Every structure is written in C-alpha cells, then in structure tokens.
Amino acid sequence: MKYKYTGDRTTVYARPLARLIEQLQRLPGVGPKTAQRLALHILKRPEAEIEALAQALVEAKKQVGLCQVCFHLSAEPVCEICRSSNRDNGTFCVVADSRDVIALEKTREFKGKYHVLGGVISPIDGIGPEQLTIQALVRRVSKDQPKEVILAISPSVEGETTTLYIGQLLKPFTKVTRIAFGLPVGGDLEYADEVTLARALEGRRELD
Ligand SMILES: [Zn+2]
User: Tell me: the pLDDT tens digits for 43-76?
Assistant: First the structure.
C-alpha cells in the first residue's frame, strides 16, 4: 500500500482550514474539537460577518492598552473608572487581573477605584514583585492617601503570598483590608457569582 495515513492534519483539512484550526486552538479553553467546530462554523458564515470579526480582533488588540493610573484595560490613557467623578477616591481595591475588575463592577457594590497588579507573586513562574505593578501601587497610595485599601486577590498559595506582601508594604500608609472569601481555596474572583462576590466585599476584614 502506497498511501499511509500519518495523522498529519494537512492531509485531512485543506491547508487554510488547518491554519485556522491551529490558530483557534491557541485560545484558552479551546481544544481540537472545539477549534474544528468553530472553524467549520466560520466557513459557513457570510464573508462580511467574518470580516467584521477579524476587524474587531485586530482593532481591540491595537486600541486597548492599560490605564496608566490603575493598569485596567482601557482604550484611553486613563480609564473611565479613574476618570469618573462619581467614584470614591478614598477606597482602592487591589486585584490581580482586569477580569477581576469586570467581575467586581458587575456586583455594583464597589464605588472606589481599582489597582490591577497584572498577576500574583509566583517564584516558580519567575514572577516577583518587580514584574507586577506593586511599586506603582505603593506610590499611588502614598500620594493619594486613600482611607482604605481592599485586597481582593484569590486565596491560592500565590494569592496569599501576594496579599501578605502588599499588606506589609501598605500598612504604614493606610488601613488595609482583605475580602472575605466564601470561595474554595484557589477559586478565581471571576468565577464567583455576583452575590458571593458582593458578600465577600461586604465581609472584608482588616489584615493582621
Ligand atoms: Zn484606571
């Protein structure tokens, strides 16, 4: 027998389709089956719709950067939350990621300002305090002197390290609290429902 199936995708899919599947599979939570389903779906849609999708991808990537004050995702140099006069300047909420800002905003419970760290301290992954926006946070707190800084970081091992580290740094400047997690250890803020998150915020306590 001359032909032997090698498992090479290009023998199964037309080459451009294989490329599309390969790119889709790089997205988080997308395995080979989902990637194939999405790719075949995309091929069935009208060209204008797919062009709009492609354009949205490129434009979002080009236009959305980080707020220079709080490091939340923003299309402007300073984000809408930082610019808003309706927000309380006396309370800062420190989170690991922009996803957490979005989760907390959905609860509508928090009226202060945010600070996004860009991750948590994780020596194994080579992430030390200097890789995060911790220095900028300390500068911001010493300058703006908020009455309270709420640490809303997931209670994983890395999250705990980060919470304690930042707590020590900020205590000389202000009252530091942490949200009360009714979540399983390692649970991400973004997976908590809005009620749980609102309660966690409400039940915050001062850091020892
Ligand atoms: Zn901002």
Answer: 999 999 999 999 999 999 999 999 999 999 999 9
| pTM metric for this prediction | 0.81
Q: Report how many domains make up the chain.
A: 2
Q: Please give the order of strands across the beta sheet that includes 91-95.
A: 113-116, 91-95, 148-151, 175-178, 205-206
Both 199 and 137 in a single domain? yes
For residue 75, how far is its CA from the centre of ligand 1 (angstroms)?
A: 10
CA of 121 to the centre of ligand 1 (A): 22
CA of 69 to the centre of ligand 1 (A): 5
Range of the domain at 93: 66-206
The H helix count followed by the E strand count for the chain is: 9, 7
Distance 152 CA to ligand 1 centre (A): 16
Largest distance between two CA atoms of the chain: 78
203 C-alpha to ligand 1 centroid (Å):
25
**Residue 84 main-chain phi, psi, to 5 deg:** -65, 135
